Amino acid sequence: MIKNIIRASAILILLYIGLVQFQLWLASKSSEQTQPIDSSTESKVLQKVYRFSFSKYDTNGKKELEIEGDSADILAKNILFTNVLAKAFAEDSPITITADSGVFDKTTNNVHLQKNVIATTNTGTRLLTEELEINPAGKTVETAVHAKVKRENIHVEGIGASGDSQLKKVNFKKNVTVVVQNLDTETKAPTIITCDGPLEIDYERNIAHFSQNVVAKDERGKLFADFMDVFYNQSTKKIYKIIATGNVIIINKDGHQTYSDNAIYLAEDGKIILGGDVEAVGAKESKKGSSSTSVADLFNLDQKQPSKPN
Fold first, then answer.
1. Interstrand relation of 63-69 and 93-105 (parallel, antiparallel or unpaired)
2. How many distinct structural domains can be found in the chain?
3. CA-based max dimension of the chain
4. Which of these, 120, 86, 110, 87, lies nearest to 100 by C-alpha position?
5. In CATH, what number is assigned to the domain containing residue 284?
6. What CA dihedral angle connects 191, 196, 198 and 201, to 10 degrees?
7. Quick one: 306 and 188 in the same domain?
8. In a domain, 18, yes or no
9. Are 277 and 260 in contact (CB under 8 A)?
10. Number of C-beta neighbours around residue 257 at 10 A
11. Are residues 70 and 198 both part of a single domain?
12. Is-above-0.90 flag for pTM?
């Protein structure tokens, strides 16, 4: 009897040990088949989204920025997104900006856009570049690389550009070229103005201020100066006046030249008023002095006489 009890107890113990080992074996197999997800992978899975949009408001509750993209890492310090559509607001009128990719910095609230960046205002002015920094609070846009601004028949390009969110005022830093298409002339030859920079454009006042080694040319000749203020008529879509100062040189299509301290070009009247010391150089000889007749004979210009002391 006792032997039977001992034998039964031994069998039960062996069965228990076998059951424990079988459970351990199953657990090990399950562990091998199910790979653990580390924290970094889990974080990426949680942070990745496929459509992202948000709006930013100022302290007065007015919208400053609206932006959306195809994907974003929304938990990081910098939100990354692609296929960007952004709207930067100024005076309740947004400038619409598209780009291939962008970054929103949560610390500064600035947006940096890259590749095929195109900014368009509600008036049709367009800025094209490969990089653009949007400052919603300051209501400005800026790029350090090559950029173009196109508005009606005026095209501007140069290195480094900045402006307000409506592109009403735009500045270029260097290597500037401005092309004004003359739509109603027979040849339709443009007026081209270049300068080393900077260039300051005020589209509301229709004035552009060119600096350093300025050259303006069209089918009638060339005008050189250290500085040049160019005035544009919004109605006629033409340049109607140029004020040139500093080492002014005018070369007409026949090769005749004048040198002066300053000059005013009145396009509608077809006149140039020269100021300061004036020298006119014709095909055969140089003519100097205060005689306005010699200058007018050569160039059909008006020479500005110095005012007499009281």
1. unpaired
2. 2
3. 148
4. 86
5. 2.60.450.10
6. 10
7. yes
8. no
9. yes
10. 19
11. no
12. no
What would the two tokens of residue 33 be? 């088949």
Q: How distant is the alpha carbon of residue 60 from its chain centre?
A: 28
Alpha-carbon dihedral sign for residues 286, 292, 294, 297: positive
Which structure tokens are listed for 195? 């300068």
Structure tokens at 213: 């080694």
- CB 207, CB 231: distance < 8 Å: yes
What mean pLDDT value characterizes the chain?
78
**Which alpha helices (DSSP H) does 227-306 contain, by range?**
292-299
Bond into 306 cis (ω within 30) = no
Q: Are residues 270 and 157 in the same domain?
A: no
What is the number of other CB atoms lying within 10 angstroms of the CB of residue 85?
Answer: 16
Same domain for 203 and 78?
A: no
Q: Where are the alpha helices (DSSP H) in the chain?
A: 2-33, 39-47, 292-299
Q: Is 27 helix (H, G, I), strand (E, B) or coil?
A: helix
Do 191 and 294 belong together in one domain?
yes
CA distances, 135 to each of 56, 88, 110, 142 (Å)? 12, 9, 5, 8
Closest CA to 54 of 33, 35, 69, 39: 69
> 188-247: per-residue pLDDT in tens?
788 999 999 999 999 999 999 999 999 999 888 899 999 999 999 888 888 899 999 999
